[in-house]
Design the sequence.
């Protein structure tokens, strides 16, 4: 598997290039503008981009979609209730194939209604649902702390501890982590009841 985390020197955004080693079929996740770092990675890896996938529809994760789609001919994919333009509507538990590589879609609302995580070979792209040392905000339009609680504690935290975490922004001590480490060190994943979590998320 090809797995590149693409960092933007001028911002904290993280985009991703994932591809099957054999077929060179690829997907780009959350491309912001400018798309030049993504294009450089695509050319370096000599892959064909089949999908552009968004973990959610906030502008900092979709601003490069149109330009990248024009440059590559790739189809745009987002969760079924996403309001921005998409060619493919994804659903919870759905699978995207890159050659023989399986990418599983996990619906994780809370930061926004259309948030998804992508699980590929023990690597979880968490978008703005879970960061290294933090979790996504819920005090914005579409945010819902009860939904985020279910996404974090009903879905993500149940994955294996050796699952690698790759967020949509470099907000933490490092640009990636493991679920086991986040369980130990991420204060947002401290065991709480739903009511306690909702109160916690309302604190400044």
Sequence:
């Amino acid at each position: 598997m090809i797995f590149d985390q693409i960092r933007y020197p001028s911002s904290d955004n993280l985009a991703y290039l994932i591809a099957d080693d054999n077929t060179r079929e690829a997907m780009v996740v959350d491309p912001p503008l400018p798309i030049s770092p993504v294009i450089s990675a695509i050319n370096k890896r000599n892959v064909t981009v089949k999908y552009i996938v968004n973990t959610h529809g906030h502008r900092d994760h979709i601003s490069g979609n149109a330009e990248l789609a024009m440059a590559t001919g790739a189809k745009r994919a987002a969760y079924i209730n996403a309001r921005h333009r998409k060619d493919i509507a994804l659903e919870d538990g759905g699978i995207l194939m890159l050659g023989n590589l399986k990418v599983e879609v996990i619906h994780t609302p809370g930061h926004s209604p259309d948030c998804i995580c992508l699980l590929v070979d023990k690597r979880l792209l968490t978008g703005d649902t879970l960061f290294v040392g933090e979790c996504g905000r819920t005090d914005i339009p579409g945010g819902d702390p009860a939904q985020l609680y279910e996404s974090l504690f009903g879905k993500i935290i149940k994955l294996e501890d050796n699952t690698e975490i790759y967020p949509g922004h470099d907000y933490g001590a490092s640009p990636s982590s493991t679920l086991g480490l986040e369980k130990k060190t991420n204060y947002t994943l401290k065991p709480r009841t739903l009511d306690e979590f909702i109160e916690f998320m309302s604190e400044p």
In short: DSSP finds six helices and 14 strands in the chain. Residues 2 and 19 are 5 Å apart (CA to CA). The chain has a mean pLDDT of 97.
